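Illustration 12: RNF41 ligase.
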Amino acid sequence: MGYDIERFVGYVNEGLLCSICRDVLEDPLQAPCEHAFCTACIHGWLVHHSNCPEDRQLIDVSLLRPLYRYMKNDLNRLQLHCRNREYGCEMVCSLESIDRHERECEYSQIPCSNAGCSVQVERRNLDGHLAVCEYRSRECPNGCGYTILSAEDTQHNCVAELRTELELLRSEMICRVEEAKHEMESRLDSQRRHMVQKESILQNEIEELKSQMSRMMSDVRSLMAAERQHRQELEQAELEKREL
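Figure caption equivalent — predicted structure in token form:
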């Protein structure tokens, strides 16, 4: 939608009006047939139509282009009232600068920044409202450190609040201890399984070493027996040699 033509000071050229909403162009686009539209208006139109609303020539979103520079300059030079005129703002400025002014206008209606407060006030009155807002927060004057809303002043009980806070901390601590306990148990189980696996591997290696040692002892005994047999044969041969 465009800018309400009633807000403008003086004459507005017909060529600067949207062909759909008939208000002054806002964020304008131009079709090849040179008819101009607000971006929101023409995009909404082309959802259900495929032609220009003025001369019915076929158009497509891809054919839309920015407004000619001279038309854009004429548009930006138009003078209009601030949208907050009904609240007391008397500012009149160019269309080119109206958005910047309205973002900072002291008569703009803005929401209260306190959580839970639905009041909207003029920007110039915001500080005064915040000073008396029933949703404003402050630290307990009794020193418990609890942040309270002004509306809760009469219900606030330091002892009860601290007790509640203590219970929450205790519950959180218990949860953390349980989590740490489960984590330690999980780690111990993992280490225990790892040790059992290592023990099994070591046991197998020991058994293998025992088997190898047994075979070596058997081989040593065989070698010693063969050596004794060889020595006896040498002694027998020596005796036979002497006899000869």
